[in-house]
Design a protein that fits this description.
By secondary structure, this protein is of the alpha+beta class. It has helices spanning 19-25, 30-35, 76-83, 87-93; strands at 8-12, 50-54, 67-69, 107-109.
Length: 117
Amino acid sequence: MSLCPRGTIPYRIKQGDTFNILAQRFNTTIKAITSVNPGVSPNNLQVGQSICIPIRRSVVPCSPGNRYIIKAGDTFSKLSQRYGLSIAAITALNPGVEPSNLRVGQVICLPVRRRRR
């Protein structure tokens, strides 16, 4: 995949993807996706094509060292296993975050330095 500018994440087009679907999935706009992908025709997306998706990072009430950016496939359960924390501890660190509605690019509080290998 090509390098994406700051504030975006790389994404590989899958069957059925449209800029409209991607905008909804990643909580952004068609205009924002189009602006970071000059030369990409939204009407001619190819499976496997690499594009960049703008992400909105909200400020969360925790120190920068404890901020974690949600990636595709992340769940509180997977994060609890990866970082050796209980789901209850992650939930307590993130009041107002719906564990069943995590979005790629969303910022949560997580003591990332405790990562397990």
